[in-house]
Amino acid sequence: MTMPDEFDPDDNFDQAFGHESDVDEEAAQEAVVWQLLLLINPGDEDAALQQFAAYREAAADAGEDADPVWLLRDAIDWKAGFFVAEDDPQALVESVDELAARWNLHIDWGIDDEENDLDQVEVPTLINTAYDRLREHHYTLWTWETGSEHHAGWITQQRDDEALRLVAGALGFHVRTGAG
């Protein structure tokens, strides 16, 4: 193998996936989707497989121009992710409680009377509370920018924080932790 005249060993990724490469972009995207599903379904490959099948079916139906972010949102909703309106704290609590229950975790939301006092708390405050409570058990609550008046996200194991940033970014998710 001959090296290009301007070979940069730190640029191996670009050399492998440059404009001249014969990478199947759909297969590469599916591989990254699979990695994301494994991260947001820690320890539950069966759930990740079911969500992957739903994603692939939706992608086939949507065609080439489909946005993987929204296809994934639909495939994981209430199974491995949440998507709630900015003015619906009850939906956030229910959804995140459901997600945390997969690991037998209960979130103390810090609200005395959840039914009556919940409407007085803003969704971002609840996201921050969930983040803090989940970190106590080595999990991270993530949110991603929806471009709308909704909040969306998922939960991963804390040790996968850097991997989640990389994989989500590769798919076009703009993520941040629920810490604020």
UniProtKB/TrEMBL annotation:
<protein>
    <recommendedName>
        <fullName>DUF6630 domain-containing protein</fullName>
    </recommendedName>
</protein>
<dbReference type="InterPro" id="IPR046582">
    <property type="entry name" value="DUF6630"/>
</dbReference>
<dbReference type="Pfam" id="PF20335">
    <property type="entry name" value="DUF6630"/>
</dbReference>
<feature type="domain" description="DUF6630">
    <location>
        <begin position="33"/>
        <end position="177"/>
    </location>
</feature>
